[in-house]
Amino acid sequence: MKTDTADLYPQKGLHHRWAGLGLSAAILSLLSACGAGGSGTLTGNVMDGYIKGAKICIDLNANSACDASEPTATTGVKGSYTVTAPIGTDLSAVHLVVEVPVGAVDEDTPSTPLTKAYKMLAPASTPLVVSPLTTVVSTHIKDGKTLSQAQAQARTDLGLPADHDFSKDYIAKSDSAAHNVAKMMATVLAEKVGSATPDLTQLKVALTAAKPFGAAAYAATDVSSVIKLTQASLAANYTIMDFSEAAATVTPFEGAAAELVSNAPTGATGKALKLSKPSTAQPWGGATVSLGYSNSVGTLPLASTAATISMQVYSPRVGAVIGLKIENAADSTQTAYELKVNTTKAGAWETMLFDYSSVTGFSSTGTFNKISIFPEFFETGTGGIFYIDDIKFVGASAQKSAPLTAPVAATSNYIARVKTDSEAAYDTTTGKALPGLYETGRYAANSGEAWWWGANYADQIQSGYGFSKTNTAQWGYGIFIKNGGSGWSISSATNYKFSLGTNSECVGVCKATLVLVSATSADCKATASVTLTGAAVTSYTKALSDFTVVGCTTNTMTAFKQLKIAELHYQMLRADMQFTTNGNVDGFYPNGLGVGGGIIFE
Ligand SMILES: [Ca+2]
Ligand SMILES: [Ca+2]
Question: Among 17, 216, 380, 449, which has the minimal tally of Cβ within 10 Å of its Cβ?
Fold first, then answer.
């Protein structure tokens, strides 16, 4: 602040208020005599760190934005500013507004211009400092409090001491504790208010978001961890597991003990995980927590920019190492990632963040749907009791996919096993009964175009083979398998497995189109395609989530899976055939498609 300048604060109604705040004699000496009006020059510093390149104005029309008609300045070195109020302005009734643009420089981090815009306020009657902290004071004044009431409430909200003076430059005073709180609050303002014109509702939302972190920021020796917690609380998130789910299970391993309990220390919501590791346990003893088949949870939507998991942890001691591992529940050969974080509280809940983007070589590629927790990871177990609750994914609002489910059929995964008697038996359009209720057949717009039609191998049926390049009116051909009953249920399946053969000329070129026809309506179906990769009968797995649904009441795969499936089709469409290698002198090109082996939804 500039106590050495001859700045004037000559406003009506200011003297009694300022005197009431106990401002120093040095500041009071700056005041000129009050008149019944007159212009007022306001000067001070804008900060959380000093911010250069921000716009500041006197918000005469109280819309929390700087309008063209309002006295405006740009902050200079050390965030310094000077603006002059018009004659007659009642500074006790207006606020200063600071618009911090992208690219402004915070002298805390001078080499990294700010990447997020935000706004700050301060009562114009106390203009020496405009900071994230004064923004809270202004918020309370706008909400109906007097200046002194607002200052008292802001101290409480932000965990500041009772004697904190909002008009003192905390940087000049080397008050790093207050500076920490300001940094935290600036983070919240950037995230919750941003460049929008903040109305009272937005300001209060920001304040509410900041409240849980004020005291921790004030007490922190390194505020970066508090900032990270603040950012995590502001980011989109979803609950991976809170242990109250009906499907919640825990599987301890390597000597650790774990169970789900309803009597965790106050602060848990519903059930929580109770964990301990005796000295006899392996250093890597822990527990896998899950909601589905194969110890899975919903697949994490990991990305390079969103790879943080938060957990509520209740530790018996400070400095205990908590490990958290993420891996693929269905594929143990996929790379897994482990992180260790130390507890910072004893006998109290704390939020712990596990940011996998900090792991050297981290890649979000793959499926991560299994979580294991390690108390006293690679420490000698003390047998101390740990509690875990509310495991959340930070940075996305929904899981990528649901936890795994068990394979559909208990006795056999096969819903159809296609085995033919003779070629002739298939050379009809009405199909042929399979063992059980199933029926199979083939179709084409013009089977006369095919050179070879309806053959059979052992354990396999084949439909068309050679097709003419010139008959472009024809779309192709298909093979179907029908359920003779009410249909197959695929509601709990994730994948569709089947086996197709083709001729060698098609390998890597031709595609088969897959069609699932619902039992509800022949128009309601799901389609996908696969590139044929082997001439011999080759097994393929297609994720059901890769299908496109058309013609149904609700055209989503989630809804479609609730319908029963009446028919399975495998088609070779003309657009997906190869017309490069000629198969014979009659002008037919080999584009065969055979179905063999089992057909499985699991
Ligand atoms: Ca304005
Ligand atoms: Ca819980």
Answer: 380
Cα(272) to centroid of ligand 2, in Å?
5
**Using an 8 Å Cβ cutoff, are 129 and 122 in contact?**
yes
What is the token pair recorded at 367? 């499926």
Query: For residue 468, how far is its CA from the centre of ligand 1 (angstroms)?
Result: 75
Nearest to 443 by CA among 461, 416, 469, 418: 461
| Cβ(375)–Cβ(281) below 8 Å | no
The residue whose two tokens read 């083979």 is 465
Q: Give the pLDDT confidence of 516-559 residue by residue, as tens digits.
A: 999 998 899 999 999 999 887 788 999 999 999 999 999 999 99
Other Cβ atoms less than 10 A from the Cβ of 168: the count is 15
Q: Say which amino acid occupies 500.
A: L
Closest residue by Cα to residue 81 from 124, 35, 37, 25: 124
Find tokens 């004037």 and name the residue.
8
Q: Which amino acid is at 97?
A: V
- Identity (one letter) of the amino acid at 130? V
Higher pLDDT, 486 or 137: 137
Residue 417 has pLDDT above 70, yes or no: no
Beta bridge partners of 313: 350, 388
Classify the phi-psi angles of 295: left when phi > 0, otherwise alpha if psi is within -120 to 50, otherwise beta: left
**Strand partners for 462:** 455, 594
Rounded Cα gap, residues 441 and 461, in angstroms: 9
DSSP code per residue over 239-297:
EEE-S-STT-EEEEETT-EEEEES-PPBTB-S-EEEEE--TTS-TT-EEEEESBGGGB-
Least confident of 1-10, 53-62, 186-195: 1-10
Domains, the chain, with CATH or none: 40-234 (no CATH), 237-394 (2.60.120.200), 416-601 (2.60.120.260)
- What is the C-alpha separation between 357 and 326, in angstroms, rounded? 13
Helix (H, G, I), strand (E, B) or coil at 321: strand
Give residue 432 CA to ligand 2 midpoint distance, Å: 55
Phi, psi of 106 (to 5 degrees): -90, 120
pLDDT at 132 over 90: yes
Q: How many A from CA of 254 to the centre of ligand 2?
A: 25
Above 90 in pLDDT, residue 332?
no
71 CA distance to ligand 1 middle (Å): 10
Record the tokens describing residue 34, joined without a space: 């009050």
Residue with tokens 């024809």: 474
**Residue 238, CA distances (Å) to 231, 298, 340, 352, 400 in order:** 15, 11, 22, 15, 11
Structure tokens at 435: 């063992």
Closest CA to 375 of 466, 254, 291: 254
**Tokens standing for 455?**
């053959």
Question: Among all ligands shown, which has an atom nearest to the Cα of 268?
Answer: 2
3-state class of 152 per DSSP? helix
Distance CA 211, CA 158 (A): 6
User: Which residue type, as a one-letter code, is found at position 166?
Assistant: F
